[in-house]
Amino acid sequence: MSQTVPGGSRTARHAARPSHPVVPYSPGLDGVRAIAVLAVLAYHLDLGWAAGGFLGVEVFFTLSGFLITQLLVAELYRRGRVDVATFVRARARRLLPALVVAVVGILVAFRVVAPESGPDLREHAVFSLLYLQNWHLLLAGVPYGEPSPLLHLWSLSVEAQLYLVWPVVFVGLLAFLRPRTAAVVTLAAGVLSAVVLAARFDPDGGGLAYYATDGRASGFLVGAALALVWRPEAWSHRRSPLARNAVDAYGAAALVVLLGELVVASEFDAGLYGSGGFLRTGLLTAVVIAAATRTGGPIAGLLGNRVLTAVGTRSYGLYLYHWPVFVLFRDVGWAPLPRDLAALGVTVLVTELSYRCLELPVRRGGIRSLAARLGYGRPEMVVVSAAGIAVVAAVVVAGTAPAVAGAAPAPPAPVASPPPSASSSPSPSSPSASPGPGTSSSLPSRTGDPVLVVGDSIVLGNADALLAVLPPGSSVDGKVGRQFAAAPSVVGSWAAVEPGPVVVVLGANGTVEPSDVDAVLEVTGSRHVVFVGVEVPRRWSEPNDELLRATAARSDRVAYVDWPGIVGSEPGLLGPDGVHPGPRGAELLVEAISGSLDRR
C-alpha cells in the first residue's frame, strides 16, 4: 500500500523540496536509549534509587515516535510519497527476528526449569508474537509486575500497533496540513491520549489502563510532533549562537528533571495517570532529543559518549532478555547483590550474543541473503515463516494443557470485585478468585458483631474460608490490585452502618502512606482494627510492614498480624509468585486473622 501526498496542494509542494533527504545518525539518541533501558533494568531489579525506572518505557515510546516520523518525513521529502506496506515490512524485518528468538528461547528455558508454567507461557508467547500482548494482559486482568517472563513484551506490542497506524495518519495529515500545523494537531492528539488515560484510570486498582494503546500513545505522539518540525542540521550549523545555546540549556534542564523522575517517581502516584504524568515525561524526553541531535552541542556530546552508545545500540536486546533472566534468578537462594550481579551478567552475555549473531547480520542484509538461498522472492516471507513457526513452537513447547487466563495465582491486578455485603464472595471471573484446595478452615465460626475484611487478591482468593469462620453478617471486600489508599473509603462506608471490627489486608500492591493509615483509624472511631503484615517480593514490602507494625504498637485498639513472621516460620506457605498463600498458607492466614479479633 502506497500513499502519495496530492501534488497540487501547497503542502505537497513544500513537502517535495529535497531539504531533508536522509535521516542522519545521532549518537546522542543511543545515549537516550541507554538511559531508558538502564532505568528499566534498575527498576526491575527493585533498586530503591530507581523507583521511577518504569518511565524508561515512556522514554522509548517518545524516541520511537520521533525516529519513525523522521523516517516517514525523509521518505516523503525524497519520493513525494510514503509506501506504508514497505515501511511496515522494514520494521518487521528489523524487530521481529530477535523477538522470535527471544520468545522461543524463553519457552524452552522455562519448559526446563518451570514446566508448570507452560500453559500460561504459551498464551503470553502467542500474543507477544502477534504484537497483541498489551491487550491480552488488559483483558485477562494480568497485573504489571507478575513474574511472567514475557510480561514486559506488552510495550513492544504498543509500539508495533502504533507503527501500523501512524504512517497512514501521518500521510493523511500532511495531505491537508503544513508540517507545523500537523505537528500541533499531533501534539493535541498526544494530550487527548493523556486525557483518555486519566478518564479510564481507577485509583482503586485501575492500573490496567497502563497497557491500553490509546492511553499510552502520548509519548509516541509527542516524539512524532517533534520530528515534524525539528531540523537538527539547521540548528547545528545555521542558527544563531543564542538559539543553539538555548536548545542546549533547555536540553540540560530537561535531562536533569528527567533523571530525577527516573529516581523519585512512583508507579502508585495517581497523578501520574490522572494528571498527565506520562505526557510530562514525553515532553521532557522530546526536549532532550532535540538537544541530543544538535551536532556539536554539549548534550549531544555527553549522551553520545562511547559507553552510552554501546549500551544504546544494544538496548533492544537488553530489553528483550533482561526480564526473563531476572525472573529465573528470583528463586535463586542467594543474597540480593550476588543474585542481581549474576542476573545482569547473564543478561549482558545473552544480549551480546543476540546483537552479534542476529541483530547485526539482520541489519546488514542477512535476511535478504537467507531469502535468496531459500528461494524466497521476498525477504519478509522469511520473517513471516519464522514467526509462524514460533507460534507453533509456543503451543508445542509450552505444553498441551488448555490455558485459562488468570487461572494461576497472580500478583494483584485491577478487575471488578463485589461490593461489601453480608455474603460477599469473590467473582469467579477474577484472577485468583477461587480458593485453592486446602483453603477451608476447621476453625469454629465466631460469634459477635459482623466483621469487615478489606483487601486485595489475597483476600479475594480466601473469601469463602474467611466467611466460614467470621460472625454471621460479615463482609469480605476484596479487589484485585487494590491500593491501601482505597481503604479509608471502603472502611468508612462500612463503619457508617456497622459497629463491628475491621481487618485490613492491604499493602502488597504498592507503598502505604501514613496519612492513609491514619485515615482508616479515624473513620473506624473506637472499633477494633486489625492490620495484616505485608510479605511480597517487592521493594515496598518491608517499609509497609514496618509502618503497620508501628501503628499497632501505638494503639490499644489496633492489632497486628505478623504475616511475614508466619511465612518465614514454615517453607512453602506462599505460591510460586511469592505473594499469594498456598493451601497451608491460606489456612494459617485465616487462623491468624480470626485469632487477631480476640486481641482487644
TrEMBL record:
Coiled-coil region list: none
InterPro entries: Acyl_transf_3_dom (IPR002656), Acyltransferase_3 (IPR050879)
Chain intervals for the UniProt region annotation (Disordered): 408-447
EC number: 2.3.1.-
Top EC group: transferase
Superkingdom of the source species: Bacteria
Low complexity bias spans: 422-445
Protein name: Acyltransferase family protein
Native organism taxonomy: Bacteria, Bacillati, Actinomycetota, Actinomycetes, Pseudonocardiales
